Amino acid sequence: MQLKKNKRTKRLVKAIKLNLKRRTIIVDDKLQYFKKKPIPSWIELSIIDVCNRTCSFCPKSDPSIAPDTYQRMSLTLIDKLCRDLKRMKYKGSVTLCGYGEPMLHKEVFEVCKRLAKVSFVEVVTNGDTLNEKKINKLYSSNVNKLLISMYDGPHQKEQFKEMTKKSGVPDDFVILRDRWYDEKKDYGLKLTNRTGTINIGIQESIKTYSHCFYPSYQFLIDWNGDIFLCPQDWQRRITMGNMMQEKIFEIWTGKIIEKYRKKLLEGKRCYSPCTLCNAEGTVLGQNHANAWKKIYKIT
């Protein structure tokens, strides 16, 4: 029994390391500048505000916190995003995940096609709506990586491997992620409290970490164009701006996000929602953080 537990733990650690390595290549190896300022290398896109699952470790499990509104991002907003990214000569990643299940968006394939013209594209899904034809269509829509989070059990691994094989896409196009573990194994995730929103599994205390690089290298765009500091803010407390009203670069270098960025680089989580966050925000983005520190003259 102990041997089986050790094997599961090793697989989990290996999966986390591989995920970090993949993201590190995109985040830390793609430090770009526009108008002499570093631009983000990772953008999370929440294209729809509904999920077909209610996982206990996710805020969507509580309708009073994160209700399904069924609102979805328009292609007009996608086109605006593409124009802004093209203007900055963006070379980073746009990842479809956020506050809902992206594959529930009826125009997900067209969304991917348009984004792929200006960025690296990833889709993160629970896989419930997938079949071989849809996997092939995502690949044909120029998606770079399809990440499938498996919540029901080990049997899903063979199921999705077979599905991928029948789809005819390259083996490395699909990444399968073990998520079927129980609370004792933290569900196969690095759990966070989503800025004080949930408290399940083994959680770090709120004051464990102080520095955070999230707003130095990434942000999240909601279905309506609202931009948030990072994917931890599930209650959508503070918007940095709306991309339909301003260019992304103007929001990225605006007064609101800079106020947070400076304090977090100084190791001060003194503004909401950061005061309630227990996420370790320095795993990625060191190069971006160093670049911003030079600009702000932070030692």
Q: What attributes does this structure have?
A:
299 residues, alpha/beta, eight-stranded mixed beta sheet, 10 strands, 13% strand, globular, disordered N terminus
Descriptive overview:
- The structure is a single chain.
- The protein is of the alpha/beta class and 299 residues long.
- 34% of the residues lie in helices and 13% in strands.
- It has nine helices and ten strands.
- The strands form two sheets. An eight-stranded mixed β-sheet has the order 7-6-5-4-3-8-9-10, sandwiched between helices. A two-stranded antiparallel ribbon has the order 1-2.
- Helix 2 packs parallel to helix 3 and helix 4 (132-140) crosses helix 5 (155-167).
- The longest helix is centred in the N-terminal third of the chain and has 26 residues, at 2-27.
- Residues 1-5 have low confidence and may be disordered.
Question: What is this entry, summarized?
Answer:
This protein has nine helices and ten strands. The protein has about 300 residues and is of the alpha/beta class.
List the helices and strands and how they pair.
Elements: H1 2-27, E1 32-34, E2 37-39, E3 42-45, H2 75-87, E4 93-96, H3 108-116, E5 120-125, H4 132-140, E6 145-150, H5 155-167, E7 174-178, H6 214-217, E8 218-221, E9 226-228, E10 241-242, H7 248-252, H8 255-265, H9 286-296
Parallel strand pairs: 3-4, 3-8, 4-5, 5-6, 6-7
Antiparallel strand pairs: 1-2, 8-9, 9-10
Helix pairs in contact: 2-3, 4-5
